[in-house]
Amino acid sequence: MSRRLARGERLVVASHNKGKLAEIDELLAPLGMDVVSAGALGLAEPDEPAPDFVGNARIKALAAATASGLPALADDSGFCVAALGGAPGVLSARWAGPSRDFGAAMARVNDELAEAIDRRAWFVSVLCLAWPDGHTQTFMGREAGHAVWPPRGANGFGYDAMFVPTGGVKTFGEMSAAEKNASNHRARAFAQILVACFG
Ligand code: IMP
After folding, report:
1. How confident is the model over 31-58, as pLDDT tens digits?
2. In-domain check, residue 4
3. Which of 34, 47, 75, 76 is catalytic?
4. Domain span at residue 14?
């Protein structure tokens, strides 16, 4: 049985990633929640030791919910490349190093792909809602497409500039925020959470 959140209820968004925060804020906006970020509450960013998206999303959401005493929403996500066995995947942020250099991370993906003909790639987002008593609910969204080189577009964040969704022409980095939010992995996971947990 899904646990639900009431309209106007206070909700912590357990992310310190500005790109994700902007997208999640936009997805939450129509719901009239009282949204506060983990950063604004001074919450620390937990380590992400789990080997999968679900594990790390739960760690982040539970850490924020227990530290704040409020329900918390976390996203764990990543860019997965078929010819690299799904890498960088859960290590997507780590491939950018401590300086968060996603130009370098994208170049590494391209270097490792080398002459590979198979350019299939996908993004995954796992959203986890956690409550201070330890209850959690997780939802997964996926957006399939292919990796392109060189990167194109200055919008978005992370690996957006080297990903074109199936059937599209523009990279996520060339899309407006509204275009990207209309169809992507995070929005797909959010659509499920919306039905199960909100209102
Ligand atoms: P984490 O969820 O904190 O481990 O970080 C996930 C990383 O995956 C982000 O830092 C981005 O580099 C990448 N990522 C996740 N979602 C997206 C997206 O929508 N566009 C581009 N990169 C993304």
Report:
1. 999 999 999 999 999 999 999 999 999 9
2. no
3. 76
4. 10-197
